[in-house]
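Appendix B. Raw example, untouched.
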Amino acid sequence: MHRIEDYALIGDEQTAALVGADGSVDWLCLPRFDSGACFARLLGDEDNGHWRIAPLGAERYTRRSYRRDTLVLDTEWETDEGAVRVTDLMPQRDRAPDLVRVVEGVRGEVTVRSTLRLRFDYGSVVPWVRKTDGHRVAVAGPDSAWLRSVPEVPTWGEDRGTHSEFTVGPGERVAFVLTWHPSHEPRPPLVDPYSSLRQSVADWRAWTSRCRYTGPHRDAVVRSLITLKALTYSPTGGIVAAPTTSLPEEPGGVRNWDYRFCWLRDSTLTLNALLAAGYQEEAEAWRNWLLRAVAGDPADLQIMYGLAGERRLPESELPWLSGFGGATPVRVGNDAVNQLQLDVYGEVVDSLALARRSGLSPHPDVWALQTVLLEFLRTAWRQPDEGLWEVRGGRRHFVHSKVMVWVAADRAVRLLEESPDLEGDVDGWRALRDEVHRDVCEKGYDPERNTFTQSYGSRELDAALLLIPRVGFLPPDDPRVLGTIDAIRAELGQDGFVRRYTPDAAPVDGLPGEEGTFLVCSFWLADALHMAGRTDQARELFERLLELANDVGLLAEEYDAVGGRLLGNFPQAFSHIGLVNTALALFGGEEAG
């Protein structure tokens, strides 16, 4: 059975595919990240759709890697007969999405088999397939996909799949191109797979050359930035949390969610990573997506939106899919969109303040939006909410949520102090900032244990409390901050990494079972240790976190320290954002200690 770390990512900045250790593309949604999957073996079996290209009789690749500074994947296979290389990519599209797979002989004469099973609508619809003009054309409802090879190789239909078999010698190449388009439209122009390969390599290397980071572990930082770029929906600038749904947070468990949407909680950290690494254009596109998405009544601000800012993301289950490793249900959509999370108001105000300070092009609506959000928070901040982690066990007065309300007021006050041309209620917002600060310190802090707690009056801890010094709520050397760091390491730590909250989470999040250590929280711990002057400990933790990435440098949402495997949706933007920001903090600036 596959493990999450067996997969590599390819994509065209509008959707993405996962390629497994056996050479099979097991996940691909077309034409967008959030569309129905045409390959859903990842969450089911072979009959739910996949496309495998591998030497006849071979089970698993010998080695694989991305071409330097690109998202072009080379997979090499050594057999008794010789060796072949399969190169996978999705060229940046003109109109239609293309999946290109190039087979090249390296040594000897090797027979290669291609098996394609297209299953539209998450593996539930078997298309009609016909042959026309050298193509195999699959059609079902609104979907159509065209398969061709260059040069053409023997292809036949069998067992509700499309099969090809051929032999390659040294230097010989066979390229396959799978192109999707709406079934009611004519076939889009053909792409040349070999020129697409050359252009993709050149495009990615031109993009990565803009990275300003030159410190240690640059390869890991660049790989994370490439992954974030790959998770960007280029038409709008929105960045999806992950390209997958329902990869479990607990093996065989029910903590399975759809992450193919854009979360506001990631906004400031994302913006910081892009700006600090030198990607101002991408940062501006994300800022502009944010402004469009949140436009409207501040009381209706959502925690997440669709790729273009869509608000309705209804959650449903797909009972015909057996789940990754049997983890069900498989979900599409996300009902957490309906939750109240006060922290997102702070994230939005903080992001827009950061954009202004960083010199992004001015936008006429930014200050008006920030002032409206602050006015809403004057009274709304007293409400309980579902918190950063989208718990389904009922609303509470989460400390992190209140801290982010303080952030919103603080950033607004600072902007007014720095910019006399702006108009706003600076005295009222200072009063709000002070009141929230007192409230959190009185009700969200446990003096007996010298730690902030997850919610008012609770004993549970929350890794989001590690952000208190980062956002400036308290200095990093404040005894309450130091006590919180130590308490989280002691109570939420597992093998040196950090869980989101107390392992017995059912009373908080309303779900049975447990989950793994949360990777972005572990990066936050490294940040907090560094800010507190414990830089050696921070760097040691950072080095260990880098070792959790799979063989091509990708991280999931969580890590199972007992089973030694990745958990959750993959690859996870939040984890890679954490990696970039921590590297920049540890090696991109002044020493903290």
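End of appendix B.
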